[in-house]
Structure formats: C-alpha cells, structure tokens
Design goal:
- Helix content is about 45%, strand content about 15%.
Amino acid sequence: MSTQPEQVLENQLIEQLSNQGYTKVSIPDEASLLANLKAQLEKHNNIMFTAKEFERVLNILSKGSVFEKAKTLREKQHIVRDNGDNLYFEFLNTEHWCQNQYQVTNQVTIEGSYKNRYDVTLLVNGLPLVQIELKRRGLEMKEAFNQINRYQRHSFGAKSALFQYVQIFVISNGVNTKYYANNRHQSFKQTFYWTNNENKRLTNILNGFTSEFLDPCHISKMICKYIVLNETHKILMVLRPYQYFAVESIIDKVKNSTQNGYIWHTTGSGKTLTSFKASQIIMKMPQVKKVVFVVDRKDLDYQTTKEFNSFSKGSIDGTDNTKALVKQFSDDTKIIVTTIQKLNTAISKKNYLAKMEKMKEERIVFIFDECHRSQFGDTHNRIKAFFNNFQMFGFTGTPIFADNAVKNELGKRTTKELFGECLHKYVITDAIKDENVLKFAVEYVGKYKQKESATEIDIEVEDIDRKELMESPKRLDKIADYIIANHNRKTHNKEFTGMFCVGSTDMLVNYYDILHRKKLEGKHNLKIATIFSYVANEEDADANGYIPEEVAIAAEPNAAYTINPHKRDKLESYIGHYNAMFGSNFTTKDSQSFYNYYNDISKKVKERKIDILLVVNMFLTGFDSPSLNTLYVDKNLKYHGLIQAYSRTNRIINEQKSQGNIVVFRNLKEVTDQAITLFSNKEAIDVIIMKPYEDYTQKFNEGYIELLKVTPTVNSVNDLVSEEDELAFIKAFRELMRLKNTMTTFANFDWEDLAMEEQLFNDFRSKYLDLWQKTKDDTAKEKVSILDDVDFELELIHSDEINVTYILKLLASLKDVKKEEQETKKKEVVDLLTGEANLRSKRALIEKFIEDNLPEIEDTETIPQEFEKFWSEEQQKAFEVFVKEENLSSEKTQKLIEHYLFAEREPLRDELLDLIEGTKPNVLKRKSIGDRILNKVVNFVETFINGMDG
C-alpha cells in the first residue's frame, strides 16, 4: 500500500464529511485561508467587501485572546464602508445554527516558530472552528492531544491567528475518538467521548462519531448553544454528552408540556453547569416569563457566586435581601438566581405578597440545583400553592427512593413523587468509566470482629451504641496518631488535602484539642482548621442518610442560633488559631464575619493551604475541591449522605491523583455496599471501590517482568536501538510508576512486597528521565520523532518536598557530618538531583556550588544567602555568554524572557530573530538559527528561573 494508514483514515473521513453536507476545499496555506474566508463571509452575509473593507474585518478578527475571540465570533459586527456607510454583518448565525456555510479541508500549513501542517479542518463561514487530529491505530490518543498543544505554542497564534477561532478539537486514532474545548490550560483528563442518550459511547470516528457529532447542524448547535464562556477563568468549556442530553430533555419538556421532571447526574459530574446552561437557554424562550434558579446558599462559595454574577450581574447579592428578589420578580429580569430561604420568604410573608400577586399566572420555570435540601419539601408545597403556571425541574446526584426516604412532617417523599419522571440518568459507574470522577480506595482501620480488608489496629470500631467507648479520649488519641502517621502518604506529601468528618460537635472539639496539643508538642506540622455551627447537638446514631442542614449561617447570616456558650467559646478560640495562621481577623461574634470565615475556609482548602479540615456536617455536600483527595471518617453515614461525603474526594485533577482515599474508623463496610447498590447496582461495588493492596502489588510484579523483557538491566536502556524500542521502555516503566503512585497511598505499602528493589526502581527512573530530557533537548532535528508527543506523566515523579529549599537543607547537613561520611552524603545529593525532573537542569551548577563554595562557608545558617548570591552570579554569566554567542541585544533579550515567563506561548521565530544585532540571517538559515535561540531561551529559563521559588 503506497499511502500510510493515517492518510487512509484522513481520506475516508473527508469523504464521509463531504457526504454529510460539507463542501471539500483545498486550502494549502494562509493566503488561501484568507481568500476563502472573504468569499464565505460574503456568501453568508449576502454582501461584497472591497479589499480595504476586508482589511477592517481582519482587524476585528485579529484582536484579543482565544477567549475574547470566542466572544467576537458570537457578536454582531460593524464596519464603516469605503463610502462612509455603516455595514452590519455576522461571523456566525448563532440563532439559527444550521444556517451557516460548511466546508472541510486538510493539510493546511501555517508557519509560526515552526511550520505545522494540520490534519482535517472544518470551516464554518470560512473560519476554522473545528480541528481534527488523527493518529494511526495503536497510538495513544494523548499523543494527538499533545500535538495540538504543540500547535498552540508554535503556530495557532501566528500571522492572522485564525486558528485561535477553533472552538472544538477532535482527536482520534480511528477506533477511539474524543472532543474538547479550545482551552490550553486543561489536561488530557478534560477530553470527552461522545455518547448516545443512554450513555453508550460512539468511539469510532468513521462509524458513529462523525455521523452524529460532526453532522453540520449538530456541531453548529454544540458551538452556538453548548459552549460556555467562563468569565471567571476566561476559558471555553464544552458540555459533555450527558449534560447535553439532560439540557435537551428539559428544553423539550418546557417546549411541549407542562410536566415537571428531574435529572439524576452523579455527584461530581458537573450538575451546576448543566442546570445553569438549561436556565440560560430556557430564559430565551418567548413563552417563558422567568427562570428561577434555586440554590442553597451554602454551596455558593466565592467561585460559584462569581460564575452566576458573570452571567446575571448582581443576581446574588450576598445578603438576606428578599426585597431585591421580589423586585426581580416584578421587573424585566429574565433569570433570577436565589436561595431556597429567600424564595420561601417572598411567597409566604404578607408584606411581599401584594407585589408577588401579579406573577401568579405567568409561566415560570423553577430549576433546583440540588433538590434534596432539608427545606425543600416545604418550598415545594408553597410554590404549588402560590403559582398557577409553573414547571419545576430538579437536579440530584443521589435521588430519594422508597428505600432511603426518611419520614418528616410532610411524610415520606421520594424524588419521583416531588418531580415526576427522571428525564436523564448518569450514575457513578458511568462517571468512573468515562474518567469524569475517580474510584474510591476505602480503608477500614480498627479492631474488627471479622477482619475484612481492614488495617488491623487497636481502635474500637464495632460498639457503635456505646457513646462513651466511641468518644473515649484513648480511642480518639489513637486515631489522631494514625492520621498524623499516614497523612503525608495519603496526600502524596501534602500535594493534596484532607477532610475529617466526625459524629458530633463534642467529638470535633475533642479531636481538635488533641491534634492542636500534639502540634504544640512538635509531633506534627499539619495546618488544621475547623468550622461548625452552634445548633443544638444532633446525635448521628440513626444515620438516616441525610446530612443535617447544620449550616444556618450559610443559609442566612443573621439566623438565630440555639447557642451553646461553651461550644461558641471553643470555636472562637479555634478561629483565633486560624487568624494567627493566616493573618486574618474572623470572629463568631458577628454573623457576617462568621459567614466570611466559612467562605475563606472554602477558598483556602481549594488553594491547598489547609492540610485537614475538621467538620461534623459542613462541607460534606455541595463542596467541590479537586485538590482534596482524602476523607477520614469517624461518623455514621448511610445512603445518599455516605455517597455525598465520599464524593468530596473523587474529583479529577491530574495523573498523580489516582483515587479518592476514604479512611474509615467505624464499621461502615455494609452500609457502603448498600449505598453503592442503591445508586448504581450490586455489581458496581467492584467498579467504584478500588481493589485491595495485594492486587496492585501483583500487577506491579507482573509489570516488572514486562519491563525486564524490554530492558533486562538498567544499562540496557542505553543500548535501545530504535525509537520504537525506547517507546516500549517508556510505556513499560510508566505503568510501574502509575502503580507505585497508587500503592504508596495504602498504609501498609512496603517495598518488601515487591519483586523490584527501591534502588533499582530509582535507577530505571533516572534512565526514564534521560529519555525525557533527550526528546526535550533534541530540537535541531528536522524529522518528527514518535517520542515528541508521548506523555511522560512527570507529575508521577514530582515530589513536592524535593526542591531547591530541600537541597539547601541537605547541604547544611553535609557541612555538619564527619569528613569520611561527606562523600556518601554528597553522592546522595547528586542522586537526588538526577532523579528529580525539576532539578536536572540545575544539577551541574549545584554540584559546582558543593565543590567550590560549600567548603568555604563557615556558618551553615548562611548557606541559603550564599547560594542565592552564587546563583545570581552564575545566571548573569550564563546570560552574557548566551547573548554574546548569538550576537543578541541584551535589553531586548531580557524583555523577551520576561514576556515569555508571563505569556501563554513560546516566542515566535520573528521575535527571536529580531533580537539579533546587525545582519539578520538569510532565508535558508532563519529556521535553524531561530530554533537554536529558542532552545537557549527555554533552557536558560528552565535552569535559572523555574523551580527556584520552592
């Protein structure tokens, strides 16, 4: 066969797209792209541009970041014509999304700092809005993802930068296909498979994916309706298939019926975004007067408040101002974002009823972000009694069925009784399969009657009816010691954070005091914070599944409390510790200050500034922090309360976070299995809960055998002949790194259980890093390497403790040891430098400091200052050498490096060549010289600047 398999796939895809209504066009370069854009915009808008007028159009298109360009794409446009007339036109018809011009092209070549040729591009009205990158079968999809990232660095922003208008990327190796939004900051974890309405994946690009997802009308609808412009982070987000189908099902109900319904999407799957998008679309329907988006204020931390306000300015006013809500009902506000508490007040208090009366007959759609808060049943009845023309839709991750319904004054109420039919379902097993949430690693710690994958330790877990046993100081002390001993292991040396939920505020006070005392004794340096409200203490022995609404403060700041003075004083002193730790000034004495404390804790946990957050009920529902990976449990949980609490830990963030860790100090095995069975099915336990430690050691030992088949010894890595052989080694060792990353979080992890010795693992790791360094440094080559886009997953190697600061501490200890031990210590430091990806570029200089400077330093206290002085001098020398070698302007190079540090892209070739003083290189040498200068800039930053603040 004369053509490559990738080429065959490309040809077949283009043929299928042509049959689906795309016009095939040849666009080899930038000039053709611009000429085609002019013709397509003229056709779409039924106008003609003169050359000067089209320049004005290109001027509009050239401005701003990817995010700002996404806004430009959707806005109506205006230029002044050559004759002075106003001309209005559009780049995209977002209202009638099928009424646009569709074309397909391939192998467009754009030259930036490198010349890049893109596989298949879908043009809408001449603009490249969808980019498809193909890899041959057998290659990892991540390689296509990394290739697109390279294009974004090297050429998407070059010249007219029209490829910054791409809204959706598609990556495929034929049999597997994923899509994602144009957001350079996301990881491969934020790429999605498309599915049908029943969550069945359409993975084959030629058999299902193209006919469904890339259909001209459908892809337009995704771009026009289902991409969210996130104002807070200034990024594009595209909805996942289950979010799309859920919103479509609600829209269908609003258009064609007056029935209610609910969406069952598992915790952590992005329900708020789905419900918000539904509100946004329904708001624009002429038959709907208002959309009321109802949330529990507790969930509205700073981030969510920003999101809502970016869409509907001032819709969340941060106060208990029901008056403002009533005003929004009576004015022309189309979407109202409110809390359950304010809504209740507006339709029940006499002084508001007169103003609300005129809304009784209007068509109002209510969307409840989490439809099982404790006040919900009451609100539900009030809405039904007050409004005559309403529809209600609820979102929940844990529906109430007959099995887990709890009786209250309104009787037992299931989700179906409150809302009607389930309109779309996406359960926890779907989310784990799609890698949208992580599995749980549940570790039962304590003294069990029957040992069941438990860590056997002298902690009582069984006698749950005897309060004095479960709350005895001796038991709590042992648990505190266990947490202190294992927290670093669980959180990858505090790369992630933990939460500790306990059975009552009495227990919380005891635990906090024990942990604080141990900190003062120097037994740990964990940053521990806590928050609880002073409602009358609830026993949790019946653990009915509901996590009580303890958060009166987070619902309405001036709520009245049944105050326990002792508890309040305790919390005031704990907030004092927090204030001392973070330089803040919060207090319980002022309800708004306490509410601000709640928000600040939320923020600090997300920023990884708190190691363990100690709670009774707060933060166990509705709190979303991807950096939280461990939940310690000394509390009875059940059904939806258990799933909600466990789900605080299973948000996806990066390769290093491989699971949510649940460490349980009570016998919750049976109730955990019951909860999983209820919210998915009995078989799902194996899907949701991670395998025991022994399974991972067995897998590791099998993987070690596979590694030895490729490279029998460490030195045989040097003898690998082809890139294919190197790739086989990378994949084999990367698998061992992934398994080791998971195993180290188990409390009983021990290298003795593995066939491979720790030293041998570290030696292979150095070779692995050598290969990574080689692909990084080898920029002079013309040929594209198959290793260029391999993901080395360096976050699996990164250890937060081993940075420049850590090395300086080691150097201080090196000074203090006896002469005969110094060589051994020195070798340890050098080995560390070799094994850490973030320190390799600094190795030669640190070794020089050890040899030349360290012996001259008398006082070890001054090592950091001496090192900083040495580093600055070396940096200045290296800068001068590099500038002189390449004949560059010092001032311009300094500015370019500063810009590179803060910009989102590597410098372009023209920018690099502009640094040269005197004669510029001829056309034949431009590429090689530009690449050489770029390589030196990147290496300079990598060596002297990156990683120096640790």
